[in-house]
Design goal:
The complex is a heterodimer.
Chain A: H1 9-20, H2 22-37, H3 58-70, E1 76-81, H4 90-104, E2 109-113, E3 119-124, E4 127-132, H5 141-153, H6 155-161, E5 168-175, H7 181-195, E6 201-205, H8 207-241, H9 244-272, H10 286-312, H11 315-342, H12 351-380, H13 388-391, H14 395-409, H15 411-429, H16 447-458, E7 463-470, H17 476-490, E8 495-499, H18 501-512, H19 526-537, E9 555-562, H20 567-582, E10 589-593, H21 595-629, H22 632-656, H23 667-690, H24 698-717, H25 729-759, H26 761-764
Helix pairs in contact in A: 1-11, 1-12, 2-9, 2-12, 4-7, 7-8, 8-9, 8-24, 9-10, 9-12, 10-11, 10-12, 10-23, 10-24, 11-12, 11-21, 11-23, 14-24, 14-25, 15-22, 15-25, 18-19, 20-21, 21-22, 21-23, 22-23, 22-25, 23-24, 23-25, 24-25
Chain B: H1 2-17, H2 21-29, E1 36-46, E2 52-62, E3 67-74, E4 82-86, E5 94-99, E6 104-110, H3 124-127, E7 135-145, E8 148-157, E9 165-173, E10 179-186, E11 191-202, E12 205-215, E13 220-231
Antiparallel strand pairs in B: 1-2, 1-13, 2-3, 3-4, 4-5, 5-6, 7-8, 8-9, 9-10, 10-11, 11-12, 12-13
The chains are: A alpha+beta, B mainly beta.
């Protein structure tokens, strides 16, 4: 046995057993992979953004209450028509009728709101009539004129049903509360596209449409680009390792780890049924993160193996030395990375707990594979000792020699430069903005964004704000306060319209008072309001008010529709509304909810989760490294470059105007996950070589030893720069930031950490 | 004497049991009904979440409910509101409502037969007596409901009727010849409403004492009970006019 220092009994036991029983060492982890992989069948993909919010959060509770009392508030808008052509034609009304009936026949649709379904309230000679605005499918010109006249005299209704230019109809489709938005989106788009012939422009919008479309689109986009990234990664590895078997081995570790992670997620859903293990939009980054970590384990092992082969010319001996050298650092990197991810359990977004646990299982499996499967497979292969892979160093290896010398000679300069860059990063942090609004995930000019923009510009807008008010909805004072609240909401430039039960009361009042517009007000006494509702109930559908007031008239809902707002605008308007409703006197309690509020709360949660995760990870990594290496100095040395890399990355985002979203925020995990690997590999080799190398050559030796796998790992992970070609802005950023993170962590380790170690070598050396 | 009775019963049975759907319904339609009726009616509406709305009203009807006056006693919010309905064969039904807070009578119209009556699960069409010749009847296999032998008839409204339903299925108790159960199907031929009826005997009339209607699609329920029922009173036809709305009768 060839051991670099006193062999640890567990380490030597693993090495002995793996090399003595290589087939068993391959079969057992592969069997484990297969059995865990069966769990993929139970994997649940959940695109509900609301599921990310803790159930005890105010806006979530209000949201749940609103859904319970008024049904789903997340709707899909369909706008259709033609530029320059009026919608007031018999043909367009017939199509509107057909589309409405088709949508109403679908089990997922609770309600369709458009001209075909709206009731009209008319008053003629003391006669009140509640009837259908569109009485039948095929309309005569006088019937169309009658509808047009009614809409002109009821602008609030018109705003919701017809575009300002009168060139497009608007249909609002409300799904049942429990219908997933992606299913709803598919149903509505299929029906819409099939009924509205090619002669019409069709635009879709609404929060249910966006949230139903985007997660799947992002996932599909990431899946395609991930394959491209893997292909590039294979090429980078092939160019450097120059051996297909070695590349296949690295990929085996990666793929098996991914299978185990996904399978474990599925098994957890199967066994616990917990939503924490659902695959949501925040989990989209999991495969990329695990891929980079598993790649790191494989690359370090294979690179070291080839280096040893060059000296020893014996595969089994090389595997032994590689295992002896790397088992501890790979174990430690896995342990610290797992600790970092498990710290997500403290994050307020509950899916992040499942995220942390499942990715930790994947990381643990990557460690097992790198310690058993990989050495066993390599030891079984018959190697050609004259191949280029064995005899000649790769491009990166040659570069690293020069790099090591530069760092050894100029540690102060390098450290100073690092401090300067970190300072710039801290300044950049001040400019970092958060944006979780998924409507802004698309660049202007893309088909999806154009559709949303159309609904925004021509119709009532895509977003909604809901104010839930408790109090007697028949009390004129309450109703007047609702009127004032609506005025306040409509004063905001982005709010296109609002509606509530107060609008209906005003309209009924006018009708009862012989259609006199002066009476389009809230009656002054409650008896009159009571009478208006009684009158309506004599012939109107009791469900007509169900979206505005509860069954007992004790809870009302004010809905404001708005154009897409930036996260900052959302925060501002929600705060303004909350302050306003807090001062209402006739209302028992009021709460603001809707997609806008959810987005605002999600912003806070994302930031909170990121900060908790970063701080906890850094503390845990520092603790574990200090304990393992039995020196606080090593713990500090591990976390300082890591923290600097995090600061530089987020600072760069701030300076470059890249917003922090629930997609880009998780980049911190990549930096920490990969960065800690690099730092630990460096420290581990530093400690080992400090016992045998000359003090003045120590840094150079360490960089020569670990620099190559670090650079190779980093360069291969940069393949995920392919994400730059995504159609989604945050995914593009993620691609760019992955490249940036790889550079900052690898170069940071080989400069910042190396320079610090060089300057402190008299204290750190373990000779 | 005994033999004669047995003979009459046998003839009766053979007539009844050999009848077509139309003949059974015609027999039902020809059953004697009171000239007029007064009752105190309680209506409980229950939505899908189990929340309820209760109404208590006094109702006076004539001509098999073709003329109807209703005064609301409860809930407090509706007290004083009253409603007059007169059905016409040759034109739209006449409906007026008295709004005490406005001191105005307003004519209202339900242009669709499927419109809900007073927020309940009964539509105006449900409350209007079916004209025998405007529907087609098909007798189905007899069934037992609540231990009672029933004729089962499928009633399909003629196209000219412009009904909001595609068909109804009614269960008629063989002994007493009254409907105890009804299912109504919408235009898509999906089950829309389930109704059940209970009766009491007053002056040899089978008078409805309870109606329970469930809208299956909306998961909404209406329970109506009739109490303090008086039949064949000295009610005058003249009370079915606008001015009666403003006078809440002592019951």
């Amino acid at each position: 046995m060839i051991f670099s220092n006193r062999p640890h009994p567990i380490r030597s036991w693993i090495i002995e057993h793996v090399l003595a029983n290589p087939k068993k060492a391959i079969a057992l982890p592969v069997l484990f992979t297969l059995s865990m992989g069966l769990g993929i069948n139970y994997l649940v993909i959940d695109d509900d953004m609301m599921a990310m919010l803790p159930e005890t959060l105010d806006s979530r509770m209000s949201w749940d209450a609103v859904q319970d009392e008024f049904g789903s508030t997340e709707v899909i808008f369909i706008a259709f028509g033609n530029k320059g052509k009026t919608v007031y034609s018999s043909e367009t009304f017939s199509l509107l009728w057909d589309l409405t009936k088709a949508l109403e026949n679908v089990n997922q649709v609770e309600e369709v709101s458009c001209i075909t379904t709206i009731s009209r309230i008319d008053s003629e000679d003391g006669f009140m009539e509640i009837s259908d605005l569109q009485p039948e499918r095929d309309l005569t010109p006088p019937q169309i004129d009658k509808i047009k006249e009614y809409l002109i005299s009821n602008p609030t209704i018109k705003k919701r049903a017809v575009s300002e230019s009168e060139e497009y109809f608007n249909i609002m489709v409300q799904p049942y509360e429990d219908i997933p938005h992606d299913i709803m989106r598919d149903v509505v788009v299929t029906i819409g596209d099939s009924i509205l012939s090619a002669d019409y422009e069709i635009h879709y919008g609404g929060t249910a449409y966006i949230t139903g479309s985007v997660p799947t689109m992002i996932r599909n986009d990431i899946t395609i680009l991930l394959r491209v990234g893997l292909f590039i990664m294979a090429i980078v590895l092939m160019v450097n390792l120059r051996n297909p078997f070695a590349v296949i081995m690295v990929f085996s570790v990666i793929i098996q780890s991914l299978v185990v992670m996904a399978g474990f997620m599925g098994w957890m859903v199967f066994m616990t049924g917990s939503e924490r293990f659902y695959f949501t939009i925040v989990n989209s980054s999991m495969p990329i993160i695990l891929l980079t970590i598993a790649n790191s384990d494989g690359v370090h092992f294979v690179a070291k193996f080839f280096k040893e082969m060059r000296n020893k010319k014996d595969a089994k001996q090389s595997v032994e030395v590689t295992m002896d050298t790397l088992l501890v650092p790979i174990f430690l990197t896995s342990l610290t990375t797992m600790a970092a991810f498990l710290s997500l359990s403290f994050a307020p977004i509950k899916q992040l707990m499942g995220y942390g646990i499942c990715i930790s299982v994947g990381i643990a499996h990557a460690f097992v594979l790198s310690s058993t499967f990989l050495p066993a497979a390599i030891s079984l292969k018959k190697w050609d000792m004259n191949s280029k892979a064995v005899t000649r160093p790769s491009i990166f290896e040659s570069l690293i020699t020069y790099f090591g010398k530069t760092v050894s000679n100029n540690p102060k300069l390098i450290l100073g430069s690092g401090v300067l860059i970190a300072t710039a990063g801290i300044i950049g942090l001040l400019y970092l903005k958060v944006d979780v609004n998924i409507a802004s995930f698309f660049r202007q000019g893309t088909e999806f964004r154009d559709s949303i923009d159309f609904i925004d510009q021509e119709m009532t807008g895509t977003m909604d704000i809901r104010v839930r008010l408790e109090g007697s909805m028949k009390n004129p004072r309450t109703l007047n306060e609702i009127v004032n609240l609506q005025d306040m909401l409509e004063n905001n430039k982005k709010v296109t319209t609002s509606f509530s039960i107060a609008d209906v009361v005003k309209q009924m009042h006018r009708v009862v008072m012989d259609d006199d517009p002066d009476f389009e007000t809230i009656p002054e006494d409650q008896g009159k309001v009571n009478n208006l509702f009684s009158m309506y109930s004599m012939s109107g559908d009791p469900e007509d008010f169900s979206a505005m007031v509860d069954y007992e008239y004790s809870v009302g809902l004010v809905t404001a529709l708005s154009r897409v707002m930036s996260t900052e605008e959302i925060i501002s308007i929600v705060d303004e509304i909350e302050e306003y409703v807090g001062n209402l006197k006739s209302v028992g309690s009021a709460s603001v909810t809707g997609m806008a509020v959810v987005i605002r709360d999600l912003v806070y949660l994302v930031v909170q989760s990121s900060v908790i995760s970063i701080v906890m990870s850094v503390i845990l990594i520092g603790l574990i490294t200090s304990l393992f290496f039995k020196r606080i100095a090593w713990g500090m040395m591990a976390i300082i470059p890591l923290s600097v890399a995090v600061v530089i990355n987020f600072g760069f985002m701030g300076l470059a105007g890249i917003h922090l979203s629930h997609v880009t925020a998780l980049l911190a995990s990549v930096i920490i996950g990969v960065g800690v690997d690099f730092a630990i590999h460096y420290i581990s080799q530093y400690r080992r070589l400090s016992k045998i190398s000359e003090k003045n050559a120590l840094t150079n030796d360490v960089i020569e030893d670990v620099g190559y796998p670090i650079i190779l790992d980093s360069a291969s992970n940069m393949s995920f720069g392919a994400l730059l070609f995504s159609a989604f802005i945050p995914v593009q950023y993620m691609g760019g930031l992955m490249v940036f993170a790889m550079i900052s962590t690898s170069i940071g380790t080989l400069t910042f950490l190396a320079a610090m170690a060089e300057l402190l070598k008299n204290n750190l050396s373990e000779r | 004497m005994k033999i004669r009775n047995i003979f009459i019963v046998l003839v009766g049975i053979s007539i009844v049991f050999g009848q077509s759907g139309y003949e059974i319904t015609k027999t039902l339609d020809e059953k004697s009904k009171p000239k007029n009726m007064i009752s105190k009616t309680t209506m409980v509406l229950t939505n899908s979440k189990g929340k309820t709305r209760n109404s208590v009203m006094i109702s006076k009807t004539m001509d098999n409910s073709r003329r109807q006056l209703i005064w609301f006693l409860e809930p407090k919010d509706d007290k004083g509101v009253s409603f007059l309905k007169i059905e016409h064969d040759d034109r739209d039904d006449e409906m007026r409502i008295w709004l005490p807070a406005f001191k105005r009578v307003r004519r209202i119209s339900a242009s669709k037969k499927g419109d809900s009556f007073m927020g309940s699960d009964l539509s105006y069409e449900d409350m209007t007596s079916r004209s025998l010749d405007e529907n087609e009847y098909k007798r189905l296999d007899d069934e037992t409901v609540n231990g009672r032998e029933c004729f089962v008839i499928e009633v399909t409204p003629n196209a000219s009727l412009k009904s909001s339903y595609s068909k109804h299925k009614i269960w008629i108790v063989k002994d007493d010849l009254y409907i105890i159960k009804e299912e109504s199907y919408d235009k898509r031929k999906k089950l829309k409403k389930e109704k059940s009826f209970s009766y009491i005997k007053i002056d040899n009339y089978d008078i409805m004492s309870k109606i329970s209607v469930k809208d299956i699609q909306k998961d909404h329920k209406t329970d109506i009970s009739f109490e303090q029922v008086k039949v064949d009173t000295d009610m005058s036809e003249k009370i079915f006019q606008e001015k009666s709305l403003k006078r809440l009768p002592s019951h």
